[in-house]
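Final report, results section. Input specification for complex C-07:
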Amino acid sequence: QKEPINVCVTGAAGQIAYSLLPLICRGNVFGEDQPVNLHLLDITPMMGTVNGVIMELSDCAFELVNKIVATDDPMVAFKDCDAAMLVGAMPRREGMLRKDLLEKNAGIFKVQGAALDKVAKKTVRVVVVGNPANTNALVTSEFAPSIPKSQFTALTHLDQSRARAMVAERAGVNTSQVKNVIIWGNHSSTQYPDVEHAVIVSADGARTSVKKAVGDEAWLHGDFIKAVQTRGAAVIKARKLSSAMSAAKAVADHMHVWWHGTKEGEFTSMGVMTDGSKYGINAGIVFSMPVTIKDGVISVVEGLEISDFSRDKMRATEHELQQERETALKIVQ
Ligand code: NAI
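Structure output:
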């Protein structure tokens, strides 16, 4: 039997964690033969709720769960961590501006970055989910200088899944047949869901471009983009609660593909630290890009042709991320 790995989930008392923990414990993330030690972090007032979650996890009788640690101390939660899913964050309340949200969260992610730096494994794979996810990931990595920047990512997989599902519905195929949709930029309403390189793969392996299969460029350049950008708000309106099941599935898929690698001929999107050398995007922001993954190493897909339409959309989301970076770094100085 394999040695257990240490997996930290923050915001363990929250909605997303409630849907995410069973996926981890069933083996849907790290593999069905991979035991896990769960490290659950939340804030002090939520520890009672976390204990309730632990009671349920215990009652699920998951075979892969070796040990569960519940704590309100990041130094305990991140100790020797192999994977960290940073879900916990201060939620956006009514009337709160994005700047206020940044302010509240930058402080949280500064503390968590510093704790990761001190106690996590240097190979820890971090995905930041708590919003504003990209800039929170940036802050976390700033305060964890001993861990390579390549180990910090932000979740845009939910946006990618939403985009794939919408294309599939429009083209009358199964979502799993839609490959290589790209999410560029920020997990916000400026994100750019790009289908210019996306394909629909049929049962016999034949590939048709999404543009051709959908056959409606006006929709792809208009309502489709808007629908992906505002899907989170649409779910809140309908459910009176934010997306949690789909977000949890996306976190699980994000970490699964990081652990197990991308398939031949396929790529996936995630927020990664830019170095200024890819697609003309400035260095020093966490920008969602198409990547391939092999043996845990994330590589940005290079050489994709970028149309003028795409370029404009990428600039807008880059601009927003640069502004967020400035605001956040001022706060945590
Ligand atoms: P929730 O409010 O149900 O749970 C958040 C949990 O985080 C709470 O239990 C809270 O006590 C905890 N928390 C707050 N500060 C903390 C800290 N310093 N350390 C540890 N835990 C802390 O929220 P939900 O629905 O689970 O969402 C979590 C976050 O994920 C939100 O910021 C939300 O905006 C974001 N999100 C991101 C998505 C993405 O695609 N990147 C998609 C959906 C949600």
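The two ends are 46 Å apart (CA to CA). The pocket of NAI is lined by residues 10-11, 13-16, 41-43, 46, 87-91, 108, 129-131, 133, 155, 158, 187, 242-244, 247 (CB under 6 Å). This concludes the modelling results for the funded period.
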